[in-house]
Queue: 2 jobs
Job 1
Amino acid sequence: MMKNSNSPFKIVVIITLVIVALLIALVVMINNNPESNEEKALDKQPSIEGQPTLGDSNAPVTVVEFGDFKCPACKAWGENIFPQLVSDYVDTGKVKFSFINVLFHGEESKLASLAAESVYKQNPEAYWGFHKVLFKEQPSENHDSKWITTEKILEVARSVSNIDTENLKSAIENDSEMKEVNKDTELVTEFDVKLTPTIMINGTMIEDPFDYEAIKKAIENALEGN
Ligand code: CA
């Protein structure tokens, strides 16, 4: 029964299988090709002068997050990616990290940014603690409902060491650090930030901020370039 092993039918099947295998190989190759998922390299990088900055100020690589306290993806990024970045690169002195405010969610974003800038101005050491707790307070459901109020900010501030809440309250009421908030907004415009979080490694904008391998790769490339 199986004698006629070179039947045209069998050859057609074999050729088809070879073509399918080649197509699969081609698709895999394209998907693995870094060129097809290239990060956006710009000819400039955001100035971090006057920005809250974590890590060694002499670290060779700068990572900037354009973020919004009202944005759920920023909360998720801060909880899932940021700690890895800190332990792999900030704590090892290779990266310094800055946060720039984005006001995509209106008045609440503005209030949170104003508060964060005021905390930073008052005591730079207290900034990252405040930053972390404020994101933690973002409700995981109904984040669109109003939750950023002066009341909430003062409650957060009280839970962080070394913040003078009376001073913070008057700074918020007087829009004391509005200039800093506006400076951030100018950077958002200058770098054409459309999504939050947007992560930049020196002058490279990361396509998918949740792709930690891409972040690592961009940092390693930047380290080699130094
Ligand atoms: Ca700022």
Note: Residues 51, 100-101, 117, 180, 184 surround calcium ion (CB under 6 Å).
Job 2
Amino acid sequence: MVNPFDRFLWGAATSSYQIEGAWEEDGKGESIWDRFAHTPGRIKDGKTGDVACDHYHRWKDDVALMREIGLQASRFSIAWPRILPQGRGAVHQAGLDFYGRLVDELLKSDIAPFVTLYHWDLPQSLQDKGGWPARDTVDAFVEYSDVVTRALGDRVKHWITHNEPWCASVLGQLAGVHAPGSKDADEALRSAHHLLLSHGAAVPVIRANSPDAEIGITLNLIPAVPASRSAADLDATRYYDGHINRWFLDPLYGRGYPGDMIADYRRKGFVQGEDLAFVQDGDYATMAAPCDFLGVNYYMREICRSHDVPEEENEPRLIQAPGPETRTDIGWEVYPDGLFDILYRVHSGYRPPKLYVTENGCSYGDAPDAEGRVRDERRIAYLRDHFAVAQRAVEQGVPLAGYFVWSLMDNFEWGEGYTQRFGIIWVDYETQERILKDSAHWYADFIRSTPIRLDSAG
Ligand code: FCB
């Protein structure tokens, strides 16, 4: 079997707010995550990303660690308020220079930069003007994308517009557990729409500035599994899948929003009237701008059970709900097969020309032992099992072209603060010392011993 691409990339991923720190240095503007984390009660351990991993100052050493592991690609995000401190208008050269230096260092190290334009740190001044629920933010994002890709488009060959618009809209504005922390279904749906619309509107602009680059978007996709064959559970599964997967995939691939979900949202009172008031003429075409790849972030499956049906009517049970022993520290089930399910489903159902796993990883708190070694065997097992599934997907014809472990290093895990360690590099937040965990050494060996292609037959 011949792969449609010439190189499979092994990488690791991070995001600006989670690692950079320097939250108000060199003229950076405030972001909604600065504001949110500074608000008492929002973050589990009361901590903030003010310093985080201090990557803003230690970026060169961090790239050296990537080199040591042998990474072939690095996915990171740009902090919009470093580039446009007020969200729009005056461009801040110091911000562009920071990322320019980082990109150059990566290229010098033969590490391909995969740049995410938006990983949730919206400038606070744009939030003050309405944030993502406001349509103006679409234009602001396109302007910002223009500025960044003009500056870096000659060197960056992989652009990701947005990371996980579901989290930015639903966790941020319906569940209220992420910035900006509101709880309003209408705002969440508007936000999702404007995130998707801004993606599509930015694609041609990025393409013009960075003509030989690949452009895509990253979604968090979750295979939905029914708890039983009962009609109610199957319907709960349809709803969950629609809510988290299809609401985002369908419009990106030219199908508009799924009709069954519009009806459900209307029933729930999330949508008023017959139409989605925030959708304007031409929006569906804009959202479906042809892209080069889809980024998939995979962490778990969801077992769906209807809340309206008594347990005994749910027989026969198809699956055993996962016990605590199969969960990581953050409570997410370890289920490698779900990665195959979601990759194959996206490939067969939507046909993106290429796929990348832009995030996959696990939270385990293993700390340095007396010798200063971090023996995180569970992470090694997790990665080994997920890589094998990725391999199976490629063998079955899924055009998967690369894989990014979340995360390069332990970092600020949003509402969880520093309580969750996802890194293959240990970070001591007091001293900023970094230690390559056993999983990083294992990954280094894996990359070194894996031929350039992941396909089985070459
Ligand atoms: C994803 C986020 C990423 C990280 C992982 C654990 O949803 O994109 O920033 O927090 O989860």
Note: The mean pLDDT is 94.
